[in-house]
Design brief:
FAD/NAD(P)-binding domain; alpha+beta; 28% strand; eight-stranded mixed β-sheet; ten-stranded mixed β-sheet; binds flavin-adenine dinucleotide; 30% helix; 401 residues
Length: 401
Protein backbone atom coordinates (compact mmCIF):
# COMPACT_ATOMS: atom_id res chain seq x y z
CA UNK A 1 0.00 0.00 0.00
CA UNK A 2 1.17 3.50 -0.72
CA UNK A 3 1.03 5.33 2.63
CA UNK A 4 2.50 8.76 2.00
CA UNK A 5 3.99 11.16 -0.55
CA UNK A 6 5.66 14.53 -0.70
CA UNK A 7 8.17 15.64 1.90
CA UNK A 8 7.23 14.50 5.43
CA UNK A 9 9.13 16.89 7.65
CA UNK A 10 10.38 14.31 10.22
CA UNK A 11 12.01 12.41 7.43
CA UNK A 12 13.48 15.47 5.73
CA UNK A 13 14.87 16.80 8.96
CA UNK A 14 16.20 13.58 10.43
CA UNK A 15 16.84 11.36 7.42
CA UNK A 16 17.92 7.78 7.88
CA UNK A 17 18.62 7.70 11.58
CA UNK A 18 19.92 4.17 12.05
CA UNK A 19 20.54 1.04 10.04
CA UNK A 20 18.84 -2.24 10.82
CA UNK A 21 19.69 -5.62 9.31
CA UNK A 22 17.50 -7.74 7.02
CA UNK A 23 16.42 -11.09 8.40
CA UNK A 24 18.54 -13.61 6.54
CA UNK A 25 18.08 -16.84 8.48
CA UNK A 26 15.28 -19.00 9.82
CA UNK A 27 14.48 -17.97 13.36
CA UNK A 28 12.36 -18.83 16.36
CA UNK A 29 11.07 -16.44 19.00
CA UNK A 30 8.39 -16.05 21.61
CA UNK A 31 6.57 -13.09 19.97
CA UNK A 32 7.07 -11.71 16.48
CA UNK A 33 5.89 -8.18 15.84
CA UNK A 34 5.07 -7.38 12.24
CA UNK A 35 5.61 -3.64 11.79
CA UNK A 36 8.34 -1.48 13.28
CA UNK A 37 6.60 1.92 13.34
CA UNK A 38 5.52 3.62 16.54
CA UNK A 39 2.97 0.86 17.34
CA UNK A 40 5.50 -1.94 16.92
CA UNK A 41 8.15 -0.01 18.84
CA UNK A 42 5.87 0.65 21.83
CA UNK A 43 4.57 -2.92 21.85
CA UNK A 44 8.10 -4.35 21.76
CA UNK A 45 9.12 -2.05 24.58
CA UNK A 46 6.23 -3.16 26.76
CA UNK A 47 6.89 -6.84 26.03
CA UNK A 48 10.58 -6.43 26.80
CA UNK A 49 9.68 -4.72 30.08
CA UNK A 50 7.66 -7.81 30.98
CA UNK A 51 10.60 -10.05 30.11
CA UNK A 52 8.96 -11.46 26.95
CA UNK A 53 11.39 -12.15 24.08
CA UNK A 54 10.35 -10.65 20.79
CA UNK A 55 11.59 -9.65 17.38
CA UNK A 56 10.34 -6.98 15.00
CA UNK A 57 10.17 -7.37 11.24
CA UNK A 58 9.23 -4.56 8.89
CA UNK A 59 8.91 -4.58 5.11
CA UNK A 60 10.13 -0.99 4.82
CA UNK A 61 13.10 0.84 6.29
CA UNK A 62 12.17 1.52 9.91
CA UNK A 63 9.69 4.35 10.35
CA UNK A 64 8.89 4.79 6.68
CA UNK A 65 5.27 3.73 7.01
CA UNK A 66 2.77 6.24 8.39
CA UNK A 67 5.00 7.03 11.34
CA UNK A 68 7.32 9.37 9.43
CA UNK A 69 4.31 11.27 8.03
CA UNK A 70 2.81 11.91 11.44
CA UNK A 71 2.47 15.46 12.69
CA UNK A 72 2.75 13.98 16.19
CA UNK A 73 0.23 15.95 18.22
CA UNK A 74 -0.55 14.05 21.39
CA UNK A 75 -4.11 14.73 22.44
CA UNK A 76 -6.51 12.86 24.64
CA UNK A 77 -9.45 14.20 22.63
CA UNK A 78 -10.56 11.50 20.26
CA UNK A 79 -11.90 12.48 16.80
CA UNK A 80 -15.42 12.00 18.20
CA UNK A 81 -16.31 14.42 21.05
CA UNK A 82 -16.87 12.81 24.44
CA UNK A 83 -20.58 13.60 24.60
CA UNK A 84 -21.15 12.04 21.18
CA UNK A 85 -18.97 9.02 21.99
CA UNK A 86 -20.97 8.50 25.19
CA UNK A 87 -24.17 8.36 23.14
CA UNK A 88 -22.53 5.85 20.81
CA UNK A 89 -20.79 3.41 23.18
CA UNK A 90 -22.09 4.35 26.65
CA UNK A 91 -20.82 6.93 29.09
CA UNK A 92 -18.53 4.63 31.08
CA UNK A 93 -16.61 3.30 28.08
CA UNK A 94 -16.42 6.75 26.47
CA UNK A 95 -14.99 8.37 29.59
CA UNK A 96 -12.58 5.48 30.02
CA UNK A 97 -11.35 5.91 26.42
CA UNK A 98 -10.71 9.59 27.00
CA UNK A 99 -9.00 8.89 30.33
CA UNK A 100 -6.77 6.21 28.80
CA UNK A 101 -5.66 8.67 26.11
CA UNK A 102 -4.96 11.33 28.73
CA UNK A 103 -2.89 8.85 30.76
CA UNK A 104 -1.13 7.76 27.56
CA UNK A 105 0.24 11.28 27.07
CA UNK A 106 1.84 11.22 30.52
CA UNK A 107 3.15 7.71 29.96
CA UNK A 108 4.72 8.67 26.64
CA UNK A 109 6.33 11.65 28.33
CA UNK A 110 7.76 9.50 31.12
CA UNK A 111 8.88 6.85 28.66
CA UNK A 112 10.71 9.46 26.57
CA UNK A 113 12.47 10.64 29.70
CA UNK A 114 13.44 7.10 30.65
CA UNK A 115 15.02 6.31 27.29
CA UNK A 116 16.66 9.72 26.95
CA UNK A 117 14.49 10.95 24.08
CA UNK A 118 14.08 14.72 24.34
CA UNK A 119 11.83 15.75 21.43
CA UNK A 120 8.58 15.74 23.35
CA UNK A 121 6.93 18.82 24.82
CA UNK A 122 3.89 19.16 27.05
CA UNK A 123 1.37 21.64 25.64
CA UNK A 124 -2.05 22.99 26.36
CA UNK A 125 -4.58 22.28 23.68
CA UNK A 126 -7.25 24.67 22.37
CA UNK A 127 -10.31 23.20 20.66
CA UNK A 128 -12.07 26.15 19.06
CA UNK A 129 -15.39 26.63 17.29
CA UNK A 130 -14.83 27.03 13.57
CA UNK A 131 -18.23 28.72 13.23
CA UNK A 132 -20.99 30.11 15.46
CA UNK A 133 -23.17 27.09 14.72
CA UNK A 134 -20.62 24.86 16.50
CA UNK A 135 -20.86 26.70 19.82
CA UNK A 136 -23.78 24.60 21.13
CA UNK A 137 -21.85 21.39 20.56
CA UNK A 138 -18.79 22.88 22.17
CA UNK A 139 -20.82 23.71 25.29
CA UNK A 140 -22.10 20.14 25.49
CA UNK A 141 -18.57 18.84 25.09
CA UNK A 142 -17.26 21.12 27.80
CA UNK A 143 -20.02 19.98 30.20
CA UNK A 144 -19.24 16.31 29.51
CA UNK A 145 -15.53 16.72 30.07
CA UNK A 146 -15.94 18.89 33.15
CA UNK A 147 -18.36 16.39 34.69
CA UNK A 148 -15.77 13.65 34.39
CA UNK A 149 -12.86 15.57 35.84
CA UNK A 150 -10.89 16.58 32.75
CA UNK A 151 -8.92 19.78 33.25
CA UNK A 152 -10.81 22.09 30.90
CA UNK A 153 -11.85 25.72 30.76
CA UNK A 154 -14.67 27.12 28.62
CA UNK A 155 -13.68 30.29 26.79
CA UNK A 156 -16.16 32.82 25.44
CA UNK A 157 -15.25 34.83 22.34
CA UNK A 158 -13.38 37.59 24.23
CA UNK A 159 -11.36 35.16 26.35
CA UNK A 160 -10.39 33.06 23.34
CA UNK A 161 -8.44 36.04 22.07
CA UNK A 162 -7.00 36.84 25.48
CA UNK A 163 -5.69 33.29 25.95
CA UNK A 164 -4.61 32.48 22.41
CA UNK A 165 -4.32 35.62 20.32
CA UNK A 166 -6.81 34.33 17.76
CA UNK A 167 -10.50 35.02 17.15
CA UNK A 168 -13.10 32.28 17.47
CA UNK A 169 -16.71 32.26 18.71
CA UNK A 170 -15.79 29.97 21.66
CA UNK A 171 -13.25 27.33 22.67
CA UNK A 172 -12.34 24.64 25.18
CA UNK A 173 -8.90 24.99 26.68
CA UNK A 174 -7.43 21.68 27.87
CA UNK A 175 -4.48 21.48 30.19
CA UNK A 176 -3.30 18.08 28.98
CA UNK A 177 -1.66 17.79 25.60
CA UNK A 178 1.80 17.31 24.12
CA UNK A 179 3.70 17.04 20.87
CA UNK A 180 6.57 14.89 19.78
CA UNK A 181 8.32 13.45 16.75
CA UNK A 182 6.91 9.97 16.23
CA UNK A 183 9.61 8.99 13.74
CA UNK A 184 12.48 9.83 16.09
CA UNK A 185 10.65 8.41 19.10
CA UNK A 186 10.34 5.13 17.22
CA UNK A 187 14.05 4.97 16.44
CA UNK A 188 14.97 5.92 20.00
CA UNK A 189 12.80 3.13 21.36
CA UNK A 190 14.32 0.60 18.99
CA UNK A 191 17.86 1.67 19.84
CA UNK A 192 17.11 1.49 23.56
CA UNK A 193 15.58 -1.97 23.32
CA UNK A 194 18.16 -3.38 20.91
CA UNK A 195 20.70 -2.79 23.69
CA UNK A 196 18.48 -4.94 25.90
CA UNK A 197 18.27 -7.79 23.41
CA UNK A 198 15.46 -6.84 21.03
CA UNK A 199 16.08 -7.85 17.42
CA UNK A 200 14.78 -5.41 14.80
CA UNK A 201 14.86 -6.33 11.13
CA UNK A 202 13.81 -4.02 8.35
CA UNK A 203 13.42 -4.48 4.58
CA UNK A 204 11.96 -7.85 5.59
CA UNK A 205 8.48 -8.28 4.17
CA UNK A 206 6.25 -11.07 5.41
CA UNK A 207 4.79 -12.94 2.49
CA UNK A 208 2.80 -15.78 4.07
CA UNK A 209 1.42 -16.32 7.57
CA UNK A 210 0.21 -19.62 8.97
CA UNK A 211 -1.85 -19.47 12.14
CA UNK A 212 -2.46 -22.62 14.12
CA UNK A 213 -3.43 -23.60 17.64
CA UNK A 214 0.26 -24.18 18.41
CA UNK A 215 1.55 -20.81 17.24
CA UNK A 216 2.40 -18.94 14.06
CA UNK A 217 4.78 -19.41 11.15
CA UNK A 218 5.75 -16.49 8.95
CA UNK A 219 7.55 -16.77 5.64
CA UNK A 220 9.55 -13.75 4.53
CA UNK A 221 9.69 -12.66 0.91
CA UNK A 222 13.30 -13.83 0.88
CA UNK A 223 12.31 -17.34 1.89
CA UNK A 224 13.14 -17.47 5.62
CA UNK A 225 10.80 -18.85 8.25
CA UNK A 226 9.98 -17.23 11.58
CA UNK A 227 8.33 -19.53 14.09
CA UNK A 228 6.76 -17.93 17.13
CA UNK A 229 4.27 -18.55 19.92
CA UNK A 230 2.43 -15.32 19.15
CA UNK A 231 2.22 -12.70 16.40
CA UNK A 232 1.42 -9.02 16.84
CA UNK A 233 0.06 -7.25 13.79
CA UNK A 234 1.43 -3.68 14.15
CA UNK A 235 0.98 -3.14 10.44
CA UNK A 236 -0.84 0.19 10.55
CA UNK A 237 -3.36 0.76 7.78
CA UNK A 238 -1.99 -2.15 5.77
CA UNK A 239 -3.91 -4.42 8.11
CA UNK A 240 -6.71 -4.30 5.52
CA UNK A 241 -4.65 -6.97 3.72
CA UNK A 242 -5.20 -9.41 6.60
CA UNK A 243 -8.68 -9.02 8.01
CA UNK A 244 -11.98 -9.44 6.27
CA UNK A 245 -14.07 -7.15 8.49
CA UNK A 246 -14.38 -3.59 7.15
CA UNK A 247 -13.16 -2.01 10.39
CA UNK A 248 -11.46 1.04 8.93
CA UNK A 249 -12.31 3.64 6.31
CA UNK A 250 -9.17 4.77 4.54
CA UNK A 251 -8.86 8.48 3.82
CA UNK A 252 -6.21 10.98 2.75
CA UNK A 253 -4.85 13.85 4.79
CA UNK A 254 -2.46 16.76 4.16
CA UNK A 255 0.15 18.70 6.12
CA UNK A 256 2.53 21.57 5.53
CA UNK A 257 5.34 23.16 7.49
CA UNK A 258 6.52 26.75 7.27
CA UNK A 259 9.99 28.08 6.73
CA UNK A 260 11.83 28.99 9.93
CA UNK A 261 10.19 32.12 11.30
CA UNK A 262 12.15 35.15 12.36
CA UNK A 263 9.31 36.29 14.65
CA UNK A 264 9.76 36.18 18.40
CA UNK A 265 8.21 33.18 20.09
CA UNK A 266 5.52 32.42 21.05
CA UNK A 267 3.80 32.97 17.69
CA UNK A 268 0.47 32.78 19.48
CA UNK A 269 -0.20 33.05 23.18
CA UNK A 270 0.80 30.05 25.27
CA UNK A 271 2.16 28.21 22.22
CA UNK A 272 -0.78 25.80 22.39
CA UNK A 273 -1.87 23.01 20.10
CA UNK A 274 -4.80 24.40 18.12
CA UNK A 275 -7.56 22.49 16.38
CA UNK A 276 -11.14 23.25 15.48
CA UNK A 277 -14.64 21.87 15.24
CA UNK A 278 -14.78 21.82 11.42
CA UNK A 279 -14.93 18.39 9.82
CA UNK A 280 -12.34 17.72 8.50
CA UNK A 281 -10.64 19.74 11.19
CA UNK A 282 -7.76 22.15 10.83
CA UNK A 283 -4.87 21.81 13.29
CA UNK A 284 -1.76 23.85 13.99
CA UNK A 285 1.26 23.64 16.21
CA UNK A 286 4.75 25.06 16.42
CA UNK A 287 8.01 23.13 16.29
CA UNK A 288 11.12 23.41 18.46
CA UNK A 289 13.06 24.73 15.44
CA UNK A 290 10.81 27.79 15.04
CA UNK A 291 8.36 26.65 12.42
CA UNK A 292 4.60 26.26 12.27
CA UNK A 293 3.04 22.99 11.22
CA UNK A 294 -0.51 22.85 9.91
CA UNK A 295 -2.67 19.98 8.77
CA UNK A 296 -6.12 18.87 7.70
CA UNK A 297 -8.13 19.28 4.47
CA UNK A 298 -8.78 15.52 4.50
CA UNK A 299 -10.36 13.74 1.58
CA UNK A 300 -12.68 10.81 1.92
CA UNK A 301 -10.86 8.44 -0.42
CA UNK A 302 -7.87 6.13 -0.64
CA UNK A 303 -6.33 6.64 -4.04
CA UNK A 304 -2.61 7.45 -3.97
CA UNK A 305 -2.73 9.02 -7.43
CA UNK A 306 -5.68 11.30 -6.67
CA UNK A 307 -4.27 12.01 -3.19
CA UNK A 308 -0.82 12.99 -4.43
CA UNK A 309 -2.10 15.14 -7.31
CA UNK A 310 -3.73 17.35 -4.69
CA UNK A 311 -0.64 18.13 -2.58
CA UNK A 312 0.01 21.54 -4.15
CA UNK A 313 -3.61 22.74 -4.07
CA UNK A 314 -4.19 21.38 -0.56
CA UNK A 315 -1.07 23.18 0.66
CA UNK A 316 -2.42 26.47 -0.73
CA UNK A 317 -5.74 25.86 1.00
CA UNK A 318 -4.10 24.98 4.33
CA UNK A 319 -2.01 28.15 4.17
CA UNK A 320 -5.15 30.18 3.41
CA UNK A 321 -6.91 28.50 6.36
CA UNK A 322 -3.99 29.45 8.59
CA UNK A 323 -3.95 33.06 7.37
CA UNK A 324 -7.62 33.44 8.22
CA UNK A 325 -6.77 32.64 11.83
CA UNK A 326 -3.42 34.44 12.04
CA UNK A 327 -3.39 37.11 9.28
CA UNK A 328 -0.33 38.78 10.78
CA UNK A 329 1.91 35.69 10.46
CA UNK A 330 3.56 35.23 7.10
CA UNK A 331 3.34 31.45 6.69
CA UNK A 332 5.53 30.42 3.77
CA UNK A 333 5.28 26.70 3.19
CA UNK A 334 8.67 25.00 2.86
CA UNK A 335 7.62 21.33 2.81
CA UNK A 336 4.28 19.66 2.41
CA UNK A 337 3.14 16.08 2.30
CA UNK A 338 0.19 13.77 2.33
CA UNK A 339 -0.63 10.49 3.96
CA UNK A 340 -3.25 7.83 4.11
CA UNK A 341 -5.03 7.50 7.40
CA UNK A 342 -7.94 5.50 8.65
CA UNK A 343 -10.98 6.29 10.72
CA UNK A 344 -13.39 4.02 12.52
CA UNK A 345 -17.10 4.48 13.22
CA UNK A 346 -16.56 5.29 16.89
CA UNK A 347 -13.16 6.96 16.49
CA UNK A 348 -11.54 4.19 18.55
CA UNK A 349 -8.75 1.83 17.57
CA UNK A 350 -8.94 -1.94 17.17
CA UNK A 351 -6.77 -3.72 19.68
CA UNK A 352 -6.66 -7.38 20.67
CA UNK A 353 -7.51 -10.72 19.15
CA UNK A 354 -9.28 -11.52 15.89
CA UNK A 355 -11.02 -14.88 16.12
CA UNK A 356 -10.15 -16.16 12.64
CA UNK A 357 -6.42 -15.67 13.21
CA UNK A 358 -5.43 -17.63 16.33
CA UNK A 359 -2.36 -16.77 18.37
CA UNK A 360 -2.23 -13.23 17.13
CA UNK A 361 -3.00 -9.75 18.42
CA UNK A 362 -3.70 -6.50 16.61
CA UNK A 363 -2.28 -3.10 17.56
CA UNK A 364 -4.16 -0.76 15.24
CA UNK A 365 -4.09 2.85 16.32
CA UNK A 366 -6.49 4.28 13.76
CA UNK A 367 -7.59 7.93 13.68
CA UNK A 368 -6.16 11.27 14.65
CA UNK A 369 -4.90 9.92 17.99
CA UNK A 370 -2.92 7.11 16.44
CA UNK A 371 0.08 7.55 18.73
CA UNK A 372 -1.76 7.58 22.07
CA UNK A 373 -3.75 4.58 20.81
CA UNK A 374 -0.47 2.81 20.03
CA UNK A 375 0.55 3.18 23.68
CA UNK A 376 -2.81 1.84 24.88
CA UNK A 377 -2.49 -1.04 22.41
CA UNK A 378 0.99 -1.93 23.67
CA UNK A 379 -0.26 -2.18 27.25
CA UNK A 380 -3.31 -4.26 26.44
CA UNK A 381 -1.40 -6.62 24.17
CA UNK A 382 1.39 -7.17 26.70
CA UNK A 383 -1.26 -8.27 29.23
CA UNK A 384 -2.97 -10.58 26.76
CA UNK A 385 0.33 -12.15 25.65
CA UNK A 386 1.06 -12.75 29.32
CA UNK A 387 -2.27 -14.55 29.71
CA UNK A 388 -3.69 -11.74 31.86
CA UNK A 389 -7.11 -10.18 31.42
CA UNK A 390 -7.04 -6.48 30.65
CA UNK A 391 -10.06 -4.59 31.98
CA UNK A 392 -10.04 -2.13 29.06
CA UNK A 393 -9.64 -4.65 26.25
CA UNK A 394 -13.39 -4.90 25.57
CA UNK A 395 -13.64 -1.21 24.62
CA UNK A 396 -11.29 -1.69 21.67
CA UNK A 397 -12.09 -5.27 20.70
CA UNK A 398 -13.10 -6.53 17.23
CA UNK A 399 -16.40 -7.74 18.72
CA UNK A 400 -17.83 -4.25 18.24
CA UNK A 401 -17.18 -4.25 14.47
C1 LIG B 1 -0.23 13.13 7.73
C2 LIG B 1 -0.53 12.39 9.00
C3 LIG B 1 -0.59 13.10 10.20
C4 LIG B 1 -0.84 12.42 11.39
N1 LIG B 1 -0.84 13.13 12.54
C5 LIG B 1 -1.02 12.50 13.73
C6 LIG B 1 -0.96 13.23 14.95
O1 LIG B 1 -0.79 14.45 14.95
N2 LIG B 1 -1.11 12.54 16.11
C7 LIG B 1 -1.32 11.19 16.13
O2 LIG B 1 -1.43 10.62 17.23
N3 LIG B 1 -1.38 10.48 14.98
C8 LIG B 1 -1.23 11.08 13.79
N4 LIG B 1 -1.27 10.38 12.63
C9 LIG B 1 -1.48 8.95 12.70
C10 LIG B 1 -0.18 8.25 13.11
O3 LIG B 1 0.86 8.73 12.32
C11 LIG B 1 -0.36 6.75 12.93
O4 LIG B 1 -1.40 6.31 13.74
C12 LIG B 1 0.90 6.01 13.33
O5 LIG B 1 2.04 6.51 12.72
C13 LIG B 1 0.71 4.55 12.97
O6 LIG B 1 1.87 3.89 13.36
P1 LIG B 1 1.97 2.34 13.12
O7 LIG B 1 3.24 1.89 13.69
O8 LIG B 1 0.72 1.68 13.58
O9 LIG B 1 1.93 2.20 11.53
P2 LIG B 1 3.17 2.42 10.46
O10 LIG B 1 4.08 3.50 10.86
O11 LIG B 1 2.54 2.47 9.12
O12 LIG B 1 3.96 1.07 10.65
C14 LIG B 1 3.43 -0.17 10.21
C15 LIG B 1 4.57 -0.93 9.57
O13 LIG B 1 4.10 -2.24 9.26
C16 LIG B 1 4.87 -2.67 8.17
N5 LIG B 1 4.22 -3.81 7.49
C17 LIG B 1 2.97 -3.85 6.96
N6 LIG B 1 2.77 -5.04 6.35
C18 LIG B 1 3.91 -5.75 6.51
C19 LIG B 1 4.34 -7.04 6.08
N7 LIG B 1 3.57 -7.85 5.35
N8 LIG B 1 5.58 -7.45 6.41
C20 LIG B 1 6.40 -6.67 7.16
N9 LIG B 1 6.05 -5.42 7.57
C21 LIG B 1 4.83 -4.97 7.24
C22 LIG B 1 4.96 -1.46 7.26
O14 LIG B 1 6.08 -1.52 6.42
C23 LIG B 1 5.03 -0.29 8.26
O15 LIG B 1 6.31 0.25 8.40
C24 LIG B 1 -1.04 11.01 11.40
C25 LIG B 1 -0.99 10.31 10.21
C26 LIG B 1 -0.73 10.97 9.02
C27 LIG B 1 -0.65 10.18 7.75
Amino acid sequence: MNLKAGYPFSLIKNGLVANYPKLEKDTRTNVVIMGGGISGALTAHRLMQKGIDCIIVDARSIGLGSTCASTSLLQYEIDIPLYKLAALIGEKAAVRSYSLCREAIDKLYLLADKIGFTDIQKKKSLYYAAAKKDVEGLKKEFAARKKHGFKVQYLEEETVFEKSGMYAPAAILSADGAQTNAYMFTHSLHQYNIKKGLEVYDRTAIHTIKHSSRGVELLTENGYWIKARKLVYATGYEVVNYIDKPVVKLQSTYAAISEILSLERPYWKNDMLLWNTARPYLYMRTTPDNRILIGGRDEDFYSPKKRDDLIASKTKKLVADFKKVFPHINFISEFSWTGTFGSTKDGLPFIGTYKKLPNSYFALGFGGNGITFSLIGAEIIADLVNGKKNPDAAIFSFDRA
